[in-house]
Design brief:
Length: 366
């Protein structure tokens, strides 16, 4: 067992792209390397430490899920990495934020977001992310010509090819349409084409299918995975859905109160998860096994739960049945097996030795 100082990550060698089996440790030459990322929003009402010392690496071609409840800091993490947090009311800092060998946080802070070559991001709601004034064809052309001049016929042929790739076959109509003239599912596909036609090395997808109904969401997710795999694009995907990461990703980063509380391979999630928040999430997923109508366990939420702890203590402790006095101090990060990291004082203690307490208090959130 390795114990790592709180807030830090362990760098251990790994294959270029993990396979999803076993606990794949962090990459030897990561595509993305994040150490001690912090995001603070300030307003007249006070400050919110939305991201409170997040550290992780992502290998080329790897798929990593960022999971956590609403307000845990998932979007703020992604927006900071993608360089969208340039407003004067936001402070972004990191000991290290490198993409493809380059530092993303320069000495001078840009006033408007500056695109990072090779890195794109897609958002939850395609309607608010696509430009409502430009046609789909013009928006695709803007991305396809960003890397250098191309003649019009070539751009049109490429744009058409990308629409077909994302499953939109009525290409003439779609190219000439504005986003509001398309259905929600079509817009999401257009957004994917826009995100991937520049062949990025990393795609950050912030709940890319949550605005779609269940069957469209699954189709869009499968398309996203198929295309990123084909292009060798690494994926950082945000979700509330812990099952998604088991099914589609190599690794999961579980966030709570602005911190990563557990980092674990998809293969290890069901059997080896140790943080009480992760195990609580896993228990609250309905299954058809047994097919009996029983109330699902929930994670009780007293007022104020989910906020970063100003003293650096465990932010999950107001909801945790294990919580003891030492949880008011910063929990260490332990590494039970290489690549599996847990931020909890009790990560080494089997549940049976915790006085038979349920790991989480059941009941409806307050
Ligand atoms: N522009 C902003 N100004 C002030 N506070 C913000 C801003 N954006 C986010 N926050 C705060 O930062 C915290 C983290 O928000 P974030 O959007 O990252 O959560 P999230 O994990 O993505 O949640 P969700 O699953 O609901 O999208 C929240 O407390 C939120 O209120
Ligand atoms: Mg979000």
């Amino acid at each position: 067992m390795t114990t790592v100082t709180a807030g830090n990550k362990v760098s251990t060698p790994a294959p270029a792209a993990s396979t999803g089996s076993g606990d794949g440790p962090g990459p030897a030459t990561p595509l993305l390397s994040v150490t001690d990322l912090r995001v603070r929003f300030s307003s007249r009402r006070g400050q919110v430490d939305a991201v409170d010392g997040v550290s992780f690496d992502l290998a080329p071609g790897e798929r990593v899920a960022l999971i956590g409840e609403s307000g845990s800091g998932k979007s703020a993490t992604c927006l900071a990495i993608a360089g969208f947090l340039t407003q004067p009311t936001v402070t972004v800092s990191a000991a290290r934020l490198d993409f493809a060998g380059d530092a993303l946080l320069g000495r001078r802070r840009p006033r408007v977001p500056v695109p990072t070559p090779g890195l794109t991001m897609v958002f939850q709601d395609a309607m608010t992310s696509l430009d409502p004034v430009w046609t789909v064809g013009s928006q695709l052309a803007a991305v396809l010509t960003a890397g250098g001049r191309r003649d019009r016929a070539e751009v049109r042929a490429l744009a058409t090819e990308w629409l077909v790739r994302v499953g939109l076959h009525d290409t003439r109509r779609v190219l000439g349409s504005r986003p509001y003239e398309l259905s929600g599912g079509m817009r999401q596909r257009v957004m994917l084409a826009l995100a991937l036609c520049g062949r990025p090395r990393l795609l950050i997808a912030d709940e890319p299918t949550s605005a779609l109904d269940a069957s469209l969401a699954r189709d869009a997710m499968e398309l996203l995975l198929e295309l990123t795999q084909e292009l060798g694009t690494a994926l950082l995907i945000v979700s509330h859905d812990i099952k998604l990461s088991q099914e589609y990703c190599d690794r999961s980063l579980v966030m709570y109160g602005g911190r990563i509380v557990e980092e674990i391979s998809a293969g290890g999630l069901a059997e080896r998860a140790r943080h009480p928040y992760t195990t609580g999430l896993l228990r609250s997923v309905p299954t058809l096994a047994g097919a009996r109508l029983e109330e699902l366990p929930t994670i009780a939420a007293p007022a104020g739960a989910g906020q970063a702890d100003p003293e650096g203590g465990c932010s999950f402790r107001p909801r945790c049945a294990r919580a003891g006095e030492r949880c008011a101090t910063p929990p260490p990060v332990t590494e039970p097996v290489p690549g599996h990291r847990v931020r909890c004082w009790y990560a080494d203690v089997p549940e049976t030795e915790l006085g038979g307490l349920p790991v989480l208090s059941a009941g409806r959130p307050a």
